[in-house]
Amino acid sequence: MTTKTTRPLVRVLRDRDSGLYLSGVVVSGFGTSALWLASGVWVKDLTGSDGLAALCMLALWLPTLAGPLLGTLADRGRRKPLLIGVNVLLGVLLLTLVSVDSPGDLWLLYTVLFVYGAAGAVHDAAESALVATAVHPSLLGDFNGLRMTATEGMKLLAPLAGAGLYAAYGGAGVALLDAATFALAAGLYAGLRVREEKPGPPQGSRRQRTAEGARHLWGHPVLRPLVLAGGATMLCAGLNGAMVYAVVDDLGHSPAYAGVLYAVQGAGSVAVGLLSGTALRRLGVRRFAACGIALLALAVALRAVPSDPPALVCSAAIGAGLPAVLIATLTSVQRETPGPLLGRVTATANTLVYTPNVAGLAAGAALVELVSHRLVLVALGVVLLVTAVPLFPPSARAETVPHR
User: Fold this and answer.
1) Given a cut of 70, is residue 140 above it in pLDDT?
2) Is residue 403 part of a domain?
């Protein structure tokens, strides 16, 4: 990367609050990724059931459907104390999992995972709102890119560490690790020097306040197309993800080779996270998102070629293309939303963008048994290209980005 490209990244990393935010993301993300893997293995070992193991992911994702409602909590008070409280709550809650050692205890694991998912929705909304007050608008793209890099980096490292810890100490050991990461994250957030105005008393009913975030998204000329494109992209990404084992089988490898493809994909996401701030400034949010979706479209379609080199290149391209619309959407939400609404709007956007991924995974799991995966991959590529086209600005004018 050139000096011009890295200068904004250095400014973000040198900022004390930004550094603490990113450290908190790394620490809590490590524990979350480790538990995400271990919980399914834990249930599988206790019951021998693939279906019950899959319920762990459902328990984590289900609360995101209530994201717009949960987001109102992030707008009720100061976000810094809320972040600290959520991390402390989850740390304490995870300690209860040390008692899970038989199938009859699984209700506790599922309950904790469900609360974990709900608290995560509140946490992400509060964090997004607080970041928007602490980071200059011209650097939000760089910050969100670094956040993506940190998150994807943890997805590469944490599952291996979690698997090793699970093998040595069981699920309780992983739960204790995750609890410790939340305690550390709470300490990092406590060190933030962010001044927040106390919000005024809430206006209207909870239903009205929840709907206010959705109205802002739907009525905004920048946010609506990005959120719609993000949801469509994540739906296709879920369908594509469900095809991975069929792709591996087509290549003539064992199922474990999927781990190699995921690792290469993660490396692509780490790379694009470092470059996203510069790309947003040069291309604008719509064009950056559109280019990412178009790259994803080509990579998904070319996955139908049964050869190792294209499969590896396509995995890296998928990792690089998919985050673009996610980073562009979050950055735009933070820039285009008034502070008092930001928690609700962030949570609503997250629900609309990420929930289709779960639907895509479920649909893909059924579709892969009925239709050739090559046909599905090519069709997904076409759908993604159609999704990308409306995001390209109709004229050559550049989208303006705030500068310091």
Assistant:
1) yes
2) no
CA 138 to each of CA 88, 227, 306, 333, 346: distance values in angstroms, whole numbers, following the listed order:
32, 21, 43, 14, 19
pLDDT at 90: 92
Query: 217 with 349: CB under 8 angstroms?
Result: yes
What 3-state DSSP class applies to 303? coil
> Same structural domain for residues 10 and 111?
yes
What is the CATH classification number for the domain harbouring 127?
1.20.1250.20
Count Cβ neighbours within 10 Å for each residue of 335-355 and write b for 16 or more, e otherwise: bbbebebbbbbbbbbbbbbbb
Question: How much is the average pLDDT of 340-351?
Answer: 87
Q: Are residues 179 and 240 in the same domain?
A: no
Among 194, 213, 237, the domain-final residue is 194
As a whole number of Å, the CA-based R_g of the chain is 21
% of the chain with per-residue pLDDT over 70: 90
187 vs 83: CA distance, rounded Å: 10
Determine the structural domain holding residue 383 and report its residue range.
204-394
Residue whose pair of structure tokens reads 């620490």 in the numeric block? 27
Q: Is 54 exposed, middle or buried (0-12, 13-18, 19+ CB in 10 A)?
A: middle
Domain count, the chain: 2
One domain, residues 211 and 311: yes
Q: 309 phi and psi, to 5 degrees?
A: -55, -50
Do 228 and 221 touch, CB atoms closer than 8 A? no
Same domain, 218 and 182: no
Q: How far apart, in whole angstroms, are the C-alpha atoms of residue 397 and residue 286? A: 12
Q: Choose the final residue of a domain: 162, 194, 226.
A: 194
Quote the CA–CA distance of 115 and 235 in Å, as a whole number. 25
Q: Which two tokens stand for residue 30?
A: 């490590």
